[in-house]
């Protein structure tokens, strides 16, 4: 295709503002799918994505659009994820595009991820067309939201499109704007040595690793041998194609085009996002700058509830990692939990998505230990250790300083909930940096220790603001502070999976909260159970779970057999999800629930 007739674009938006719905409409209007074929939200194809209404993996589709100027254009749409944990996927897909549609819900207005995503698009030098979606809603206020886009984001919104992705109003204008208002890719020489950007890669059961590529120069053809310049490895290209949205094989891809190649690459890790794909026999002299790899920032231990399932877990974790290069794992042994894995994630949502997939798709019951960030520990002899796991904390007398990661968080919140949000940030050791208004919404910028955010910050924020706040964060720096390891002892046995690193000033309150929670979560036993929190040898909080004497079925007065059986079954069911620590059974939920603060 002549690059003048190509438009490569992304849709950037805050979650739920209608990006996926708009993408589906564009596919439908350009005949990629008939209405009948179009299942809801074609582009969100993982189960969990559909259930939670979030897009995790960026998806691409090629559309053909006969424009009003009489020419037919090829439109390559890259659907980007909207959630903060997946911001990295947003940024890398933007480098394959020249333009972006900025979708803003005309009733909600600009939100935290609208800002974060649009700034990434601006950083990547993309032209931006603002689109106000959901104008069918009675609460839509397009005028006000246009003004807000200009005030808060600082881009011209006078020609913002007004559409409803739901009803289809304004969709033809969107297609026309893509052609007339977004630039064509820079022309490249199709005869030059191949130079292509590896935009994304994922594992396909039939084809092996699939690489999504954007061609800059040269031509990609089936049968040629390509080299990935970062790793140096060369592969025979088994196939070249495009997504429409179904895979369709093509003869070749030329400058400006986006498509996929499959080349019997074994692991996603071998096809690094940001790498330059070139011709093995005639390599380009100027590889692309590439991206920084996505680094895990939140770690936790995953252990099978039933230790006999360890091999199943290993198998599942390995298979998941094949398809998700940002998920890392290594084996871990815990005195209390036995064999498991220490896993790294991009954020808490990523952690939850992986945990859910392991349980659901691979059918293993898991115990998740306290999420932790990476602490930098400087020892008295000067060596610096990256600590991923509180259980590995060195002897405090050998520690000189401990530093923890900080983030800059941006929160948008309606006026009436502002007080609650400020209190939450303050309680989490936050430092206020900015407080401004955009209409009736406040924008608050705080610096916060990431450690205080990984536990239940999103959940708390959501409940305080009835779901009306939006949140986004960026990495800031490492700061030294008075941090200590808090251990938890159940029946005088330390439960390493519950130990955590906390700020000394918060240790007592945290310890007390934890003991109270555990007291509620651990079922009563035939004996009395002390539950304690400690720093070093010093007990800072204590609760006692009193002994149970009665048989649970005793109160069923003999008569009703089914009820009795139900109770016993329920008890058995409960048993299955418990782990024994010394003489005490601790239910699976206790591990995560005990960490939530309220
Ligand atoms: P995404 O998170 O940005 O991909 O948002 P989705 O496309 O998944 O849309 C979020 C919700 O908004 C869904 O329930 C959609 O049905 C709804 N939605 C999307 N576009 C419109 C619209 O134009 N009008 C109305 N009323 N609802 C819409
Ligand atoms: Mg979506």
From TrEMBL:
NCBIfam families: lepA (TIGR01393), small_GTP (TIGR00231)
Source organism of this protein record: Hyphobacterium vulgare
SMART domains named among the record's database cross-references: EFG_C (SM00838)
Pfam families (alphabetical): EFG_C (PF00679), GTP_EFTU (PF00009), GTP_EFTU_D2 (PF03144), LepA_C (PF06421)
Record keywords: Cell membrane, Elongation factor, GTP-binding, Hydrolase, Membrane, Nucleotide-binding, Protein biosynthesis
Record's function text: Required for accurate and efficient protein synthesis under certain stress conditions. May act as a fidelity factor of the translation reaction, by catalyzing a one-codon backward translocation of tRNAs on improperly translocated ribosomes. Back-translocation proceeds from a post-translocation (POST) complex to a pre-translocation (PRE) complex, thus giving elongation factor G a second chance to translocate the tRNAs correctly. Binds to ribosomes in a GTP-dependent manner.
Topology term for the membrane: Peripheral membrane protein
Compartment annotation: Cell membrane
Claim: Nucleotide-binding is one of the keywords in the record: yes
Name this polypeptide is given: Elongation factor 4
Residue ranges constituting the Tr-type G domain according to the UniProt record: 4-186
Lineage: Bacteria, Pseudomonadati, Pseudomonadota, Alphaproteobacteria, Maricaulales
SUPFAM superfamilies noted in UniProt: EF-G C-terminal domain-like, P-loop containing nucleoside triphosphate hydrolases
Catalysed transformations (reactions): GTP + H2O = GDP + phosphate + H(+)
EC number: 3.6.5.n1
Binding site for GTP: 16-21, 133-136
EC class of the enzyme, as a word: hydrolase
Similarity comment: Belongs to the TRAFAC class translation factor GTPase superfamily. Classic translation factor GTPase family. LepA subfamily.
GO terms for MF: hydrolase activity; translation elongation factor activity
């Amino acid at each position: 295709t002549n690059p003048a007739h190509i438009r490569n674009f992304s849709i950037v938006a805050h979650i739920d503002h209608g990006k996926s719905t708009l993408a589906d409409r564009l596919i439908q209007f350009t005949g990629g799918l008939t209405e009948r074929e179009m299942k809801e939200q074609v582009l969100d194809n993982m189960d969990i994505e559909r259930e939670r209404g979030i897009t995790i993996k960026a998806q691409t589709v090629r559309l053909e659009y006969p424009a009003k100027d009489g020419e037919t254009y090829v439109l390559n749409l890259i659907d980007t994820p909207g959630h903060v944990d997946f911001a990295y996927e947003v940024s890398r897909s933007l480098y394959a595009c020249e333009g972006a549609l900025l979708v803003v819900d005309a009733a909600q207005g600009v939100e935290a991820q609208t800002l974060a995503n649009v700034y990434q698009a601006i950083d990547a030098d993309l032209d931006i067309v603002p689109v106000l979606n959901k104008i069918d809603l009675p609460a839509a206020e397009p005028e006000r939201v246009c003004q807000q886009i200009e005030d808060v984001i600082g881009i011209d919104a006078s020609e913002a499109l007004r559409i409803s992705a739901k009803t289809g109003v304004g969709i033809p204008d969107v297609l026309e704007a893509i052609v007339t208002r977004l630039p064509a890719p820079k022309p490249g020489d199709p005869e030059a040595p191949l130079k292509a950007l590896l935009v994304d890669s994922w594992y396909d059961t039939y084809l092996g690793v699939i690489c999504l590529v954007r061609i800059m120069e040269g031509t990609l053809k089936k049968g040629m041998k390509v080299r990935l310049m970062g790793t140096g490895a060369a592969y025979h290209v088994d196939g070249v194609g495009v997504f429409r949205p179904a895979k369709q094989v093509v003869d070749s891809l030329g400058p400006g085009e986006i498509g996929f190649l499959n080349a019997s690459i074994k692991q996603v890790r071998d096809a690094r996002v940001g790498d330059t794909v070139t011709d093995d026999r005639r390599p380009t002299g100027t590889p692309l700058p590439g991206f920084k790899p996505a680094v895990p920032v939140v770690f936790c231990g995953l252990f099978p509830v039933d230790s006999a399932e360890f091999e199943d877990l290993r198998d599942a974790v390995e298979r998941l990692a094949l398809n998700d290069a940002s998920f890392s794992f290594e084996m871990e042994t815990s005195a209390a939990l036995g064999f498991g894995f220490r896993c790294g994630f991009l954020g808490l949502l990523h952690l939850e998505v992986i945990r859910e997939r392991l349980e659901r798709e691979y059918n293993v019951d898991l115990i998740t230990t306290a999420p932790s960030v990476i602490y930098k520990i400087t020892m008295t002899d000067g060596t610096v250790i990256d600590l991923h796991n509180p259980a590995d904390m060195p002897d405090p007398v050998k520690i000189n300083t401990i530093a923890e990661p900080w983030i800059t968080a941006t929160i948008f919140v309606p006026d009436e909930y502002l007080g609650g949000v400020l209190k939450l940030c303050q309680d989490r050791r936050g430092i206020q940096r900015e407080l401004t208004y955009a209409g009736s919404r406040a924008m608050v910028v705080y610096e916060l220790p990431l450690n205080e955010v990984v536990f239940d910050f999103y959940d708390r924020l959501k409940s305080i603001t009835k779901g009306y706040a939006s949140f986004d964060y960026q990495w800031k720096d490492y700061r030294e502070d008075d941090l200590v390891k808090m251990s938890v002892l159940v029946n005088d046995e330390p439960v390493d999976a519950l130990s955590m690193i906390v700020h000394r000033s918060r240790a007592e309150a945290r310890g007390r909260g934890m003991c109270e929670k555990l007291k509620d979560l651990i079922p009563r036993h035939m004996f009395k159970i002390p539950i304690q929190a400690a720093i070093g040898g010093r007990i800072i909080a204590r609760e006692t779970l009193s002994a149970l004497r009665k048989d649970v079925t005793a109160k069923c007065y003999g008569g009703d057999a089914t009820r009795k059986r139900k109770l016993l079954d329920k008890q058995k069911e409960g048993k299955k999800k418990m782990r024994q620590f010394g003489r005490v059974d601790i239910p699976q939920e206790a591990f995560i629930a005990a960490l939530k603060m309220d």
